[in-house]
Sequence to fold (238 residues):
Amino acid sequence: MGLLSRLSLARHRRSGGSGQFRKLESRLNYKFKDQTLLETALTHGSLNHDSKNNYERMEFLGDAVIDEVLASWLYLKYPDTSEGFLTKRRSSLVNKRFLYRMAEHLTLPDYIRVDPSVNMNERKVALNIVGDVYESIVGAIYLDGGPKSARKFIRQSLISHASEANYNSNYKGTLIEYCHRKHFRGPTFKVVSVKGPEHRKTFQISVIIDDEKEFIGSGNSKKEAEQNAAKKALDAFQ
Fold:
């Protein structure tokens, strides 16, 4: 069953006792002492406008907890890198697309409660809501079990998948930072070619480093081609 269909079914979920969350708690690898925290963490504001009874406050808390845990982990994992590199690496781990993928691993979309008036057919809306709920779950675990439980959950559900975040990385920004750190000249990006009809163009872009090392990437937009070229360069250097 696809994401949007699953969310549509989840819209109509209502509290039915602790049993309804047993499978979810198994996926989370955490059992709530206070089930109402979990239910609130899964409830969108469209169903309950009171911020005490929807996930917004828990999302705020979870976002802060995730930032603290990731900052500490990245600082220790990359002892010789700059603040800019650490910031970009953290950004790749907390963007909504990546959090959505982590939420999918946990089957969170099956349990999110949202009013039918919310247009879940709009992918951006769905991605944001699912990503928000991942953060609110962190907040709920923090409130229910304390910092230690929240850190354990983040390590298991997010940090353990950190290598997958490269899919959403800002390769161009990372390459710029890498070249600066290594005192390389560049990188310099330039368009090599543009082919195809107006509605389906293919761009080829090269990135030149130290005036001699060249890597070429292609894509359906200049941005995509730049990112692919930067990724090739990073793969070669790292």
